[in-house]
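Students often ask why we bother encoding 3D structure as a string. The short answer is that it lets us treat folding as translation between two languages. Here is a chain of 280 residues written in the first language.
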Amino acid sequence: MLLLGLTFVTTTAVGGLAFAELPDGLHIASLRQLLVHPAVVRAGLWFSIPLLFILLTHEMGHYLACRRHRLDATLPYFIPAPVGIGTFGAFIRIRSAIRTKRELLDVGAAGPLAGFVACLPVLFIGIALSRPVAELPVSGYMIFGEPIGFHLVTRLVFPDLPEGGDIFLHPAGFAAWFGLFATALNLLPFGQLDGGHISYALFGRVQRRYSWPLLLVLIALGFKWTGWFVWVVVALVMGVRHPWVPDEETPLDPRRRLVAWICIAVFALCFTPEPIKIVP
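And here it is in the second language, the structure alphabet:
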């Protein structure tokens, strides 16, 4: 609870400072006065509450799947951070060994699917509260890459958005965008990431054979957005190939195969090759 409370404070503060629209000519004497300004607090809460809701739902999906299979797992730990989006995410610790691909698929898929479902209403609300703009400025702004899912919802909410136009995202929209981005990162098909569990459960030794070529694809994407190089390092540290489980050759039942393919579809809806682009 302490870590959750600290993460709530850091995400509210960071979100408020990043997304608050302050009146022109406002004089603020100290950072403390800025942090308690109503506009900053309001923007921060619009960002932090949806973001933590998405992250908590993701981790509780994992936790409940562990409980279903009687695996010993902790409740979620949140990691506060005074930079970035105010958090480095959340995780649970699974103390029991996962011995079958059925358990692997259920535990690995439960988090991303739960988080994605939680993200959808936040995405609709955040985009509906956003402000459409007819055209982008010439320079000095940041573009957040649009995953397919984000683009579809934007066009559904703003069907008349002109060519070359965009939306000025509401803080809840940013929270939803980060929720989609976090889902895509977790579904990368490497090692101990959720995507590694799912792809290994679905494809068995094929995942172990093609994991290194897929890492080369991620390295190539790093020349488009350098942040992917960080995730190359994460994959190398956690292990690119998934650890062997005893029933590697046993196929999944049809229902679990369907769940695995749904996870792959969710990855496609959430992934963007260039998540952040800065226009000087």
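Translate back mentally: Residues 2-21+28-279 form one domain. Keep this in mind for the problem set.
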